[in-house]
Structures are given as structure tokens and as C-alpha cells.
Amino acid sequence: MICRLLAATALLLAAIPADAAKTLIVNANGYTMDSAGNLRRFSTLFVGDDGKVLAIMPRGTVEPKLVAGDFRLDAKGRTLIPGLIDAHGHIMALGLQLRSLDLTATTSLADAQTKIAAYAAKDTSAGWIRGGGWNQVSWGLGRMPTAAELDAAYAARPVWLSRVDGHAGWANTAALKVAGITKATKDPAGGRILRDAAGNPTGVLIDAAMDLVEKAAPPPSAGEREKALEAALAHLASVGLTGVHDMGSSAEDWALFRTFGDEGRLTLRITAYAAGMPAMEAISPLRPTPWLYNGRLKLQGIKLMADGALGSRGAWLLKPYSDEPGTRGLQFLDDAKMKNLFSRANYLGYQVAVHAIGDAANRQALDAFTEIRPAYSDKFRNRIEHAQVIDPADIPRFAELNIIASVQPTHATSDKAMAADRLGEARLTGAYAWATLRKAGVKLALGSDFPVEPANPFYGLHAAVTRQDRQNQPPGGWRPEDALTLQQAFAGFTTDAAWAGGQDGKAGQLTEGSFADFLLLDRDPFTIGPAELPQVVVEETWLDGKRVYVKPAK
Amino acid sequence: MICRLLAATALLLAAIPADAAKTLIVNANGYTMDSAGNLRRFSTLFVGDDGKVLAIMPRGTVEPKLVAGDFRLDAKGRTLIPGLIDAHGHIMALGLQLRSLDLTATTSLADAQTKIAAYAAKDTSAGWIRGGGWNQVSWGLGRMPTAAELDAAYAARPVWLSRVDGHAGWANTAALKVAGITKATKDPAGGRILRDAAGNPTGVLIDAAMDLVEKAAPPPSAGEREKALEAALAHLASVGLTGVHDMGSSAEDWALFRTFGDEGRLTLRITAYAAGMPAMEAISPLRPTPWLYNGRLKLQGIKLMADGALGSRGAWLLKPYSDEPGTRGLQFLDDAKMKNLFSRANYLGYQVAVHAIGDAANRQALDAFTEIRPAYSDKFRNRIEHAQVIDPADIPRFAELNIIASVQPTHATSDKAMAADRLGEARLTGAYAWATLRKAGVKLALGSDFPVEPANPFYGLHAAVTRQDRQNQPPGGWRPEDALTLQQAFAGFTTDAAWAGGQDGKAGQLTEGSFADFLLLDRDPFTIGPAELPQVVVEETWLDGKRVYVKPAK
């Protein structure tokens, strides 16, 4: 009788669709950090029908029994690691960039003109042609290009192309016209309109002058934004990222993330930080959202900006720039306003993620965290984004105040020459000081700041452990005393990033009960030489025990 | 062996929490419409652990077997009907009104002044005093009230009180001052500032002129809005509504609905219609959302406005108002704009719900639906909200074009005297013409327009079948030839409303596979006299097989 009742139950269970079955991966070369911070090895990964890890097991363990509908994969010895987490990226900006015209590989002005013409011919929208990545230096041009040269490639619609460093833009005549830029237009503060001998704009605009065109350009349509998010998700899965902390989500970004979540298309865990208070108020003004879509989306914190960037001398420094003694950079918030913003964020339950690049901005943020600490800061995992240039005296304060340093290893290797110019050698102590921060007991979270840098987290691992760029420069690494060990860097892109985003114990590790987010790799990052880390290829990306990316066959 | 495996499965099942158990309600006096439009009776309702109806069964059927953890309720003969659906309400406005000063029960200007003074004395916030529900007609005032009369009640802070129909607002001098409304202020398009003989504003603002004050009034805080939604949900459950078509959801409303959905606090099925294109663009610009939270929330359509209301002479009529021959009311959209809005909504997959009260507005909407029909209208359940005054020649066009008439029975019984004044007797043919519409083959959906009218759907059932107000006036009913049968009205608040909101077969009925949303009543609406319908008391409200409201013990 009991057995008959149970038989009826079994019939019901048989109706459960196959996508709710268990998954067993055997014969893997598995690595994970565990919650105690140890690197663990395993051969078998067993995933429940809820997409969570049931167990990891060493080689030689008896395989768990499977039933019809369950899935078994022989990894054939491939390396299996947790899906990686980028603690600082810009998802929509990446997607829009991926879908725009990419001129980074062009070798001459003529080559660029050909690519621009071909791209414009294929683009059937009525909108602007946008793109970037050009570099007159690598073209061997010896000067900036002109609007007339861009018109020669395409003149029918506005074309607007940013330089590889993002600090200059190249417009065609149609774009200049829509933006209303003429001989009479004055250079804005912090920007320059390049002009010919007669004073007419040549077509290239520098820094703040770029806004004149940006303001005139139509924003991407909802349909374009949807395609951009699709492109970003596909790209991020292909480089092995299963989690991103989106630094500065607008209400529009959030609505699109929700659309993808609602429609079951969100193949990434997005820890969202609202683009300031207005975005937070539009998205979830009462309190952070819960984790949505099985841990794939949450409005977790608020992104605030304390200063600008080092390259454009916007980073706010305690002492003048070495290469421009007239300026200390830009302070974005006065002390009272910063403190009020921090305490309001924490009061509502939001984590603070404050962009601070210069040593003055970092000190101001630490001072503000100190002031609000009695009420909030120990309960929150407040974070400083970039924490790029820190006065050595302030480094221990990160640990005392429990402030996460959210750093981007590839920035150091991209910035190394520029940083030395801006700061001077003496001030580099405390700049990109990852090992020093870690030794002081500071929690690090690692990221890329994509699309400013490539999203590929293996580039970040490489930069973190070698302090070299991907041309292996400089020999021995730049200020190698601040390099991380591979295990530290791996934690920075897994468990430590998860901790910074409030998914510790859930994401970034493969232990009982955690999300079964993992990668199958073409080589073992723990045994190859560090110089080879950028060459690691992600062959498969899995999220919640489901495959979301497979490397296309050649 | 098999039996042992099954036993392990049974152990797993035993761990399912009690709230996922089956529910059996026996000994009920059950009614439901079925998908074929028949009224069915039943005694037993059996609900699965997914909150959906497994079966309804007549008296004498052998009870299904339950297991430990399942729930059995003896209804003791009480009447059980599907949860009712209001096809036209304003959820946030109701909530804010429930928490603001309510003047609907005031019987004279003096009575209102006393209540305003008492409320203002109790309100300890620093903000505006807001409220509504006043009606100079029911006060027997014979004219609109003035700012000076409001100052006499309270002058220290701005006071802003909307008329019962929402189409006029009454400001005190402080509110006029903050809004900057003076003799020099021009009437905005679509609105009117009432003035004295000298041209000075008297304090009452009509339709679009209300925006002048609304723009100046501080919006309710996020915390106030949360409390308002809590209040609205509690009230709606207490009157037996398990579904509402929210007519004009803002992006802010939507974010709050999602917060409640995300937090598991949404005790109502909300079919949301965005407040125009800008709200749609902010909420879900690509396409309608899917049904969220197990059928509890969807952005389904777009609410558009073709004209104003009859009471304030904003309804757009084919011929002049009988009691003000100088005006035909207000046209809100030109023909091309209306057609473009309709076709854009349908193109994106959204249902159109267009407010049209006057016969000119109804004709314009029908003309626009005719124009877009080749592309869209048969695929969509486009609807005209109110459909209040229709030229008799246009009535068959609703059926030809498959346009739903979304009508509010209590409007007729509240408006009857005013409507005769505004329209004249001859033009009442085609006004509030529910039976005439139905006979012409038009689909009706019934609602209340709360908070303009009370949300209690039993008031609507009563008005629909009696054409009398709740004082049983006029004897025999007002234009009783347009009364509905109780079964027709019941369908209008259940299956027909569900159809209009895209939940047909799911909500509004208790048949296999539908949501187990139901009410236990203190009496049987199908056997009591129609005059007793407003006295029906909801004792329990259930949603998805879970109790969300129980009448408090006295």
C-alpha cells in the first residue's frame, strides 16, 4: 500500500523536466577556494537539480548514482574552476562598445576609412555611426585626422569616433553640424576644439569638448540597448565571467536587466550599484532589492564619485601633479555632502562604492567612513573603487575601517608610464599597492573596469601576479613588490569579489550549497607559467549548473 | 529495491514545507463561471500545492485523500466565489487617499471645513495637507467652494483637495501662493482656473489646471508610498478584490509593485497599464513584461486619455453641453497623434486602454481603432475605458472592432443627476448603456474607477443590476433598460474582466488549472435580493490557495 502510494509519487517525479535534473562532472582537474580561504582540489563536481553544488569529491570517490534524465560529463582531465567575478565593470557600456565600430586594429588612415565605409554601408539604422579605437600614432600619421577625411569615408549621416584612450573624438562634418560646432564655438573648460589656421574646427575634439558632440548624439534606442546587453552577456560568458559588479547602473540599465531576468535570459550574476542617488531612488528607494532570479541580480549599493581619473589629471591629489604643478585634480564632493551621501546610503541598507583615485580623494573617503562609523560602517562592506593612489599613512585605515579596496590590476600595467609622469617616482609608493594593502589586512576585490580595459579576467590575473603588460613589459614587472600571488589574485576574482558583492559562500566557490557556476579551461592556470595566463581559453561556462557558453568549434 | 528508492523519495517529499501543501475546502456553497460562460455550482474546492485549482466537485463526491501537512477547511455552508477583479482602478491613488483626508462623507461645506481643521490639527508633518472626495453638488452648494473658505478651515500650510471625480482641485491661499497662481496666470490648454468677476483665481482648478498645483506640491516620500500601497492592498483584499487593472501606472508605481512582488508581499493580481508612453518607456520599452510573481503582476498595456470627465465638462461631446452650450468639452489628442499612439502601442505588443467619456471621444477612438485595424486591432484586446456617453450609431462598432467596453457601474448611479444636466434627456440613450452594449455583442469588463468610487465590488454588482444608488434611488432604477442580470455583472467582475486583462482561464474562475483565488462570504449574492448586495461581507480572501485576508473578529 505504501509502496503503491510511492509509485504514484515516482510517476509525478518522472514528469519533472530534464532541465531540473542532477549533473555530474567527472575526471576534472578542479580547483576552488573554500570559505576558510584554502585552495581545494577535486576531481568530481556533483550538482543538484536546483543548480547548487551537492558535493566536490577527490579522485577515486565512488560516483553518485544517477537516474534517467540526469546528466554526466567526463571532463577528460580539463581544468575546472569557479566562474570568475569582475568586481568593477560597466556592462551596458561594454555592450554598446561591442556593437559599435572598432578601429583598434586599423593600421593606417586609409585602412580606417575603408573599415568606416564598410561599416556604414552595413548599418541600416537611421542613426549615428559610432565607434572608437583609432590612434593616429599607430597609423604613422604624425597629426590628428580631419572631418574631411572622415567625410571621404562616410558623409551621409553623423559619424563620431573616439580615440583609443577615450580622451579625443573624431567627428565628420554632419556630426559637427548637428552639434553646432563652428569657428565661433569657444573651447569649453577642460576641453579643446582642434582648429585649422583660419580657426575652423578640424573635426577632432579633446576631453571636455567631446561633450559638445555627445550631447547632440541621440541616445541608443531601447532595441539597440537590448542588443548591446545580449552582446555584453555573450562576451562576458566567453571570457569566463559569471559575475559582475556593475558600477553605476542607471534606471534604464536596471529595467533592461530586469527584462532579461524576467525573460530568463540573464546569463550573468549582476551585483548592481546604482549610478548615484537619483538612480537608486528610481530603482528601489526603500531598501536594496532581495537577490532576484536565483542570485542573478540585486541592487546592492550606490556608486558615488569622489574624483576623476589620473590620465586626464582629474584624480584629486594631496599635492600637485608632477607633470602639471598648477593642479591637484578635481574634488567632486565636499566633505559634508560625501558624509551625508554615505550615511544616507548605509541608512537605507545600501553598500557604498565610492570611486576614489587620487590620494586626496581616498583620504576624504576614509575620513567620511570614519565619521559615519559609529552608526554604520562596520555593518556594511563599504568599498573604495580603484583606491589607486593612497598616501601610505592611509593604508592601515582601510583595514581599521573594514573598507574593501576594489582594484583593477590591468590599470596598473596600462597606466605605469603615465602614472610615473603624473605622480613622480616618490609618490608611487602607495599607488596600485595591492600587496601592501593585503599585508595591512585590507580586503581586496579584483576587477577590470571594462570596457576601459578588456573584460578578460585572465588578463587581470596575469597583471596581478606579474605586474607586466601582455608584451611582458617591463622585465621583472613594474614595482613587483606589490604583485599578488596567483592564489591571492584568484581569490580576488572569486571568493573575495563575492564577499565584496554580498554573495560570499554562494558565488565564486564550488562547495556544498554554493551556486554551480564554473568554467572548463584549455589549460591549468595554476601550473602554466604566469606569462601564459592571458592565453588561457575558456572552453565552457556554466551558471547554476547549466551551460551558458561553449567555445565555438574552429 | 524500487520500493526502497521510492521510500527515499518520500522522505524528500516530507521535507516540503507546509505552505506547499494541498488545500481542501468542503461544504461550501460554491459558484463560478466557467470558460464557456456558464455559472457552475460546487461544494468542494481542491487546491494543489502550486496554488492552482485541482478540481471543483459537487456535494456527495468522495473527498480526495489528504496527507500530513495538507489543509482541510469546512466552509460550513458559506458561499464561496472566485476572487473579484476590478477592471479599472488606481491602486496608488487609493492607497494615498486611504492615508489622506477623506471628505467623501461630508454633507455640507461647513461639515467639510470642520473635518479639514481637525485633520490638519492632527497632522504633525511639515508637508502639505492633502485629501479629496469633496462634491459641491452633494453639499447642495450650487457653486464651487473658494480658497477663502478653505483658509477659514486651515491656512497655515498649503491645503490641496481633489474633487470626488478627480477632475477638479480646491486649493487654499497658501497652496495657490506656492504654485504661483495669480490673476496673471493663463488657463493651460485642457484646463481652467476658476475666477471671480475681477479675474482673480477663486481656488478651484479644473483638469489640466490642476497640474499647476500638483507640480508645486511635494510628492509623497518613498516611505509614504510604501505605506499607501500596504493600505491599498489591505483594503482591496478586505472588499474581495484579488485582481485589479491599474489604469495609469507610473514608473514609480511600477518600482513599488516590483518591490512588493520581490519581497513576497503582493497580495493582489495587478494588470498594469502604463501611464502613457513615457511610463511605458521607463518600465519596459521593448515589449510587455511576462506575468511575474505567479501571475500577480504584468505591464500589459498603455493607458491613454482621449478626453476629460463629464462632471467637470471635460468629456468631449459631439454637441455642446446641455447646461453650458458654449463648450463641447476637451479633446486631448488630435486624430493623427491618437492613431500613432495606438499603433505604436500595438506594434510593441501592448494593449491600448484609452479613456473616452464623451461621445466625440468615443467616436474618435473607434475611428482610430478602425484605421489601425488592418495591422493590429483584431490581435489585441484593445479597450475603451469608461465608454460612458456613446452615440447610438457607434455602439455596434465596438463589437465590429472587438473593442472592450470597460465600464464602471457605480459611476452611473453616482452621476445620474449630473449626467442628465450635462447631456439632456435625449442624449442619455447611449449613456452608461451596458445592456445595449452587451446586446450588440460587445465585451464588457466591469470596475469601479476607485478611488473615484468605492472599491467594493459588491457596490458595482448592485449598481449594475439595480441601476440604483445605495439609498435605493431612484425607485425602479435609472434607465433600468440598461441594467445587467446578476450573472452578467458577476461575469463582468470575474471572467470578462480576466479576459480584458489577459488572464482568461486563469483568474476570475475556479476551474481546473486556474488560480485558486476565492472569497468566503457571509451571504449568498445569488439568493439575496439585489438591494442587499452592498451588504455582502467578505469573511475571507484567498489568493493562490493561501489566505490573504480574514475579517477581524468584532
TrEMBL record, chains A, B:
User: Per the record's keyword annotation, is Hydrolase included, yes or no?
Assistant: yes
Q: Which GO terms describe its molecular function?
A: hydrolase activity, acting on carbon-nitrogen (but not peptide) bonds
Q: Where is the Amidohydrolase domain?
A: 74-549
- The highest taxon in the source lineage is Bacteria
Q: Which Gene3D superfamilies match?
A: 3.10.310.70, Metal-dependent hydrolases (3.20.20.140), Urease, subunit C, domain 1 (2.30.40.10)
Signal peptide feature range:
1-20
**This protein's UniProt keywords:** Hydrolase, Signal
The protein here is known as Amidohydrolase
